[in-house]
Write a structure and sequence with these properties.
- The chain has 4 helices and 5 strands; from the N terminus they run H-H-H-E-E-E-E-E-H.
Length: about 90
């Protein structure tokens, strides 16, 4: 399912227009101004009961190898987004 299909399904299930549904989806998931992205950027996490947790994790700095030359390179530490599914969601998928 892509964003357009999600918007269409939300509009149908909620009985709202596709334009309104698209606005809701954008305000939740947009990486530039969405609620989830804003919270993760500020170091928080978003917990949706029965569904899962969006959070950031820290990847430590490490030494890697340039695949072309084989020389060692330093890879800096960085934060990355992660999703952890809740038990209810995991159980539904079994």
């Amino acid at each position: 399912m892509n964003k357009t299909e999600l918007t269409r399904e939300l509009a149908q299930r909620a009985g709202i227009t596709q334009l309104a549904a698209a606005d809701v989806v954008d305000h939740i998931f947009n990486p530039d101004f969405g609620i989830i992205a804003d919270e993760l950027h500020d170091g928080g996490k978003v917990t949706i009961g029965g569904f899962g947790i969006y959070e950031t994790r820290q990847r430590a700095a490490r030494t890697g190898r340039n695949p072309r030359t084989g020389e060692a390179i330093e890879i800096p530490a960085k934060r990355f987004p992660a999703f952890r599914a809740a038990r209810n969601l995991k159980d539904r998928l079994e």
